[in-house]
Amino acid sequence: GAVVSQHPSRVICKSGTSVKIECRSLDFQATTMFWYRQFPKQSLMLMATSNEGSKATYEQGVEKDKFLINHASLTLSTLTVTSAHPEDSSFYICSALETASGGVYPFFGPGTRLTVL
Amino acid sequence: EDQVTQSPEALRLQEGESSSLNCSYTVSGLRGLFWYRQDPGKGPEFLFTLYSAGEEKEKERLKATLTKKESFLHITAPKPEDSATYLCAVRGSGAGTALIFGKGTTLSVSS
Predict the structure, then answer these.
(1) pLDDT beyond 60 at B95
(2) Phi, psi of A67, deg, nearest 5
(3) Chain-centre distance of CA B70, in angstroms?
């Protein structure tokens, strides 16, 4: 199957700082990527849809000025958590769409654990 | 509004004890129902995609089926390494290309 990587896998930062998370599709091109967050024992909640070369589409309740998304190439999307606060601590997971043989297959990265002190 | 409900929330099985996980959904224009496996602290691992009622797919001890209202993930003779959270998600015509997830079923298989 297709491979999606995320970096870093874990990050601890101080309150008020910014953190950048990278999501890469390693063996396919993805015009569309998604960012999710997952709280303990909860399911994945979609934050935003990222399309290469255009502005991201944010879900209701997600602050676009706080969670900056850039999809500069067909294999890379970044999520920057600006002025992070402890309540932003969560597991962030990206997904990239692979389209092959007429199907659409969302593959997920391994996730990034963010802890804000 | 597109919605996905999974049951049970948690399931404990003995090794070799077959069972099924349920995923009920309401979606406008189903464009795919997806099953994933998620281990603690990791991202979801793709298992199956089903597109139309009556479709079935198998992989090792897992078999996924689909009707117009629900999907089942059948686990035959499970092993301890099958322990994980199984997530169901749908992609509908009203949700763009994003997936809507259920809360998952956490499966524990003991030897």
Answers:
(1) no
(2) -110, 95
(3) 10
